[in-house]
Design brief:
The chain contains 7 helices and 5 strands. By secondary structure, the chain is α/β, with parallel strands linked by helices. It has one domain: P-loop containing nucleotide triphosphate hydrolases (Rossmann fold, 3-Layer(aba) Sandwich), CATH 3.40.50.300.
């Protein structure tokens, strides 16, 4: 999709920006700064789930399994995407559920923060809080997740932005320049 054709943009979008991407892509960091610069309310699905349950995402995975976590995630995406004028940083696996992909596409402008597995590995390799990387070969697991999820992120994305090695502020500035014409946001 051309960056100038924001697929879902209409009066129901209500100025929402939803950020998708792999773990370590910078969704939360970029989302917070983007929300500040656009004077929008920031939400993060993983943080909201932790606030509601009182436990870390890793503990939910341990107790309820990935399916239990994904069920909570679907409920939260339904609720948060119905809000207006927000920036939402989603968990890396949010796009696995077709209902989530539909809600994201219908209710806002979706930005895919893209990074290659090699970059993601550099950013996440010391993070012990990521339940999907608790394997014998976390790097191979990350590459497997990327191969499966990348097409799904692209399916819902109105914009794909490579995170590369630029600073967070440079990335946000680039993103603002792309969002304004793409999603008709006043910046």
């Amino acid at each position: 999709m051309s960056p100038l054709a924001c697929r879902g943009y209409n009066s129901r979008v209500n100025g929402n920006i939803f950020i998708v991407g792999m773990m370590g892509a910078g969704k939360t960091t970029v989302g917070r700064i983007l929300a500040q610069r656009l004077h929008k309310v920031f939400h993060d699905t993983d943080h909201a789930i932790e606030a509601r349950t009182g436990v870390r995402v890793a503990m939910i995975f341990d107790v309820e399994g990935e399916s239990g976590f994904r069920k909570r995630e679907v409920e939260l995406v339904e609720e948060l995407t119905a809000l207006e004028n927000i920036v939402l940083a989603t968990g890396g696996g949010v796009i696995l559920d077709p209902h989530n992909r539909k809600r994201l596409s219908e209710r806002g402008c979706v930005v895919y923060l893209h990074a290659l597995p090699k970059e993601l590995w550099q950013r996440t390799r010391h993070d012990r809080k990521r339940p999907l990387l608790r394997t014998e070969d976390p790097r191979a697991r990350l590459e497997e997740l990327y191969r499966f999820r990348d097409p799904l992120y692209r399916e819902v994305a109105d914009l794909v932005v490579d995170t590369g090695r630029q600073s967070v502020n440079a990335l946000v500035t680039q993103l603002l320049g792309l969002l304004e014409p793409t999603c008709r946001l006043s910046v």
